[in-house]
Specification:
alpha+beta; three-stranded antiparallel β-sheet; two-stranded antiparallel sheet
């Protein structure tokens, strides 16, 4: 896996931080405890060519050009004369300026990859955590607590809107449940003569699941489309953002993200199959690296990041403490 562009601790000099553009190091290093700028470092100015001499050497004829060095005949312009030294070349087995050799950190010029035949650089130990749009990834614990808070809010909405349908459903199946419990306590496993649920039980069950799904959709999708946060995510200071840019999700992407987890609610009546699908989706983020995307994140191409405690723009990259600066390698 290629390392994402960003500011990281230089493996060759842990006291400095450099910008990795996905293929090589670019720009000058900065102290490791300094706040890195947003994005890549500015391009370094090109070296100024030496100015031409203002006066001709002693004994030279004006307009005749510089006098040749004794013993070094002149040659065509731009090329060294026979026997004259040209630009310095590296000795065999050595690396020239701007080239990347073993044990030698990259130069400060444009990004260059390793020489042919050399592997791309690795990281000592575990690679640095990705920071989408300059923000750290949200922990699984924070995401789980945010989801539980949202489930509580949706449950309260169902108690208000769906409560009557649930009460009618319980009334329809209560004779069957009471007789089944009585026989179980008496050790009777026979099913002969059990009262059947009422005729409206099946229709009420479908109505309950449809209403519960619609309430969940109305609670989550609009707020995620506009801000990338539900009430639970705001409490836990986490936010869903697109992978490619720091911007609102939009209604279509928010709907795709929700549907992977929300639509299986309609399958709860099918031996809990829908609940199993939702459980697999919920725990999938534990096994995804490096972006910790759940299945609904992968479908919508989103990541969940931690929002700075003090607020501010989502692209804020300043570290909040020295103990965990961005891009530190363990």
């Amino acid at each position: 896996m290629s390392v994402q562009p960003g500011w990281y601790v230089d493996p060759a000099d842990p006291e400095t931080r450099r910008y990795w553009d996905g293929e090589g190091w670019i720009g000058a290093p900065i102290p490791v405890d300094a706040t890195p700028p947003e994005g890549p470092p500015p391009a370094e100015p090109a070296p100024v060519p030496p100015s031409a001499p203002t006066s001709a050497p002693t004994g030279a004829v004006p307009g005749a050009g510089p006098a040749p060095h004794p013993g070094h005949p002149t040659g065509p312009p731009g090329q060294p004369a026979p026997g004259q030294w040209g630009p310095a070349q590296p000795a065999p087995g050595q690396w020239g300026p701007g080239q990347w050799g073993p044990g030698q950190p990259p130069g400060h010029g444009p990004a260059q990859g390793p020489p042919p035949g050399w592997p791309y650089p690795g990281w000592p130990g575990r690679p640095p955590e990705p920071r989408p749009h300059g923000l750290p990834l949200a922990s699984y614990g924070a995401r789980l607590v945010a989801r539980l808070i949202d489930f509580g809010a949706v449950f309260l909405l169902n108690a208000l809107v769906n409560g009557w349908f649930v009460w009618r459903y319980v009334e329809e199946i209560s004779p069957y449940l009471r007789e089944s419990v009585r026989r179980s306590l008496a050790g009777n496993t026979s099913t002969d003569g059990l009262p059947q649920p009422g005729e409206q039980a099946a229709g009420l069950q479908i109505a309950i699941l449809l209403i519960a799904t619609a309430l969940w959709f109305a609670y989550e999708v609009p707020s995620m489309a506009a801000r990338g946060q539900t009430f639970g995510k705001r409490v836990m200071r986490v936010r869903a953002v697109p992978v490619e840019a720091d911007q609102p999700l939009g209604f279509g992407r928010a709907t795709r993200r929700w549907s992977t987890m929300g639509l299986p609610t309609l399958l709860w009546y099918c031996c809990g199959f829908g609940l199993l699908l939702q459980f697999v989706d919920a725990v999938s983020a534990l096994f995804d690296h490096p972006l910790r995307q759940a299945l609904h994140d992968k479908r919508a191409q989103t990541v969940v990041v931690q929002v700075p405690r003090s607020g501010g723009p989502a692209t804020r990259t300043a570290p909040h403490d020295r103990a965990d600066p961005p891009g530190d390698t363990p």
